[in-house]
Design a protein that fits this description.
Blueprint: E1 2-7, E2 37-42, E3 45-49, H1 55-61, E4 69-71, H2 77-80, H3 87-93, E5 97-101, H4 103-112, E6 128-132, E7 138-139, E8 145-153, E9 156-163, E10 166-169, H5 177-183, E11 188-192, H6 205-215, E12 219-223, H7 232-235, E13 243-245, E14 251-253
Length: 254
């Protein structure tokens, strides 16, 4: 199984529009971060977690020619706004896109992309098949079993996901002991770390490192990174030896 980081940035991405900070002005490609998303590839099948505003650009950059399903973590715009572009795969693969999401995300998609779910369908719109998920394992079509990990994004429930020995968690601020137990034993962990300061709805660096220390993975990667965190090359040397900054285009083999 291969994991590709499609986007490692926070909701505004990096650089941020109209910002003149050192990070946003950096010429280092590691400091260019699209909105958070990952690609999972196994046995010739591709699956994406979240289709943010940069989804089209991410698919083009990663040269993805086939996509079997999309799994959503939650309904915020930086995680769902690009769903319309699954229509390219509808056209190429002559099938509906399988969508896996909670009832809350389903309702948000139906509001945001009302034309997709209308009885009077306009030619060329995306075609999707909704699969409602709850906090229990589910099977991806032609793919692996996924175990949801419920975390809290301030007051909003968000799903992280565990696949075999890999766990992906974004937009977490708190995680209950029962959900932490699902993560333990993961060899590879990707978790959000917005920046160094306290934040109401995201782990900061200190909280992310404490969580990593609790889980004890072989390797951990920080994602959903803000421009306020600093430059990639300045942050990475200060991290524990098994912790790294994720970056757009990073490939992880499991």
């Amino acid at each position: 199984m291969k994991i590709t980081i499609l986007g490692s940035g926070t909701s505004q991405g990096v650089p941020v529009i109209a910002c003149d900070c050192d990070v946003c002005n950096s010429t280092d490609s590691f400091d260019k971060r699209l909105r958070s998303s990952i690609l999972i590839s196994e046995h010739g099948q591709n699956f994406v977690i979240d289709t943010g505003p940069d989804f089209r650009q991410q698919m083009l950059r990663a040269k993805v020619k086939s996509l079997r399903a999309v799994v959503f973590t939650h309904a915020h715009k930086d995680h769902v706004a690009g769903m319309d572009d699954v229509r390219a795969f509808n056209y190429r693969e002559k099938r509906d896109m399988e969508i896996f999401c909670t009832e809350t995300v389903e309702n948000a998609l139906k509001q945001e992309f009302h034309y997709v779910f209308s009885n009077d369908k306009y030619p060329g719109i995306p075609t999707v098949h909704l699969n409602r998920i709850e906090n229990k394992p589910f099977q991806l079509p032609d793919g692996p079993m996924i175990t949801p990990i419920q975390v809290m994004h301030y007051r909003m429930p968000v799903f992280g996901y565990r696949i075999k020995d890999f766990t992906y968690i974004t937009d977490a601020k708190t995680i209950s002991p029962n959900e932490i137990e699902k993560v333990k034993g993961s060899k590879i962990l990707i978790v959000n770390a917005l920046h160094r300061s306290e934040h109401i709805s995201h782990f900061n660096l200190e909280e992310a490192l404490a969580f990593i220390d609790l889980i004890q993975p072989e390797k951990a990667y920080l994602t959903h990174i803000s421009h306020l965190f600093g430059k990639h090359q300045e942050i990475e040397p200060s991290l524990p030896e098994n912790v790294f900054l994720a970056y757009d285009g990073l490939e992880i083999e499991l």
